[in-house]
Amino acid sequence: LNHPRIINLLDSGYDTENNLLYIVLEHLEKAATLRERIKSWSPEVTDVLDMLIDLLDCLSYSHQSYIIHRDLNPSNILMDRTGN
What we know:
Layout: E1 9-15, E2 20-25, E3 32-33, H1 34-39, H2 45-64, E4 78-79
């Protein structure tokens, strides 16, 4: 996927020694999950709406590329230090 709000997937594979699937994503400096941000966040309604619009844009883009997340929740949404 090539979207400004979706982290790039760098590699994926299967570790036969440990019997594990893995994915490697680009580094997101000072990232926090949405769950972590919610604990200390007192947003305005417009901030929440802006974030939801961005999230829905990402989902729409990925769905158009035939990719479904299947485990979307606040712990799986990363945000950088600026809130993107």
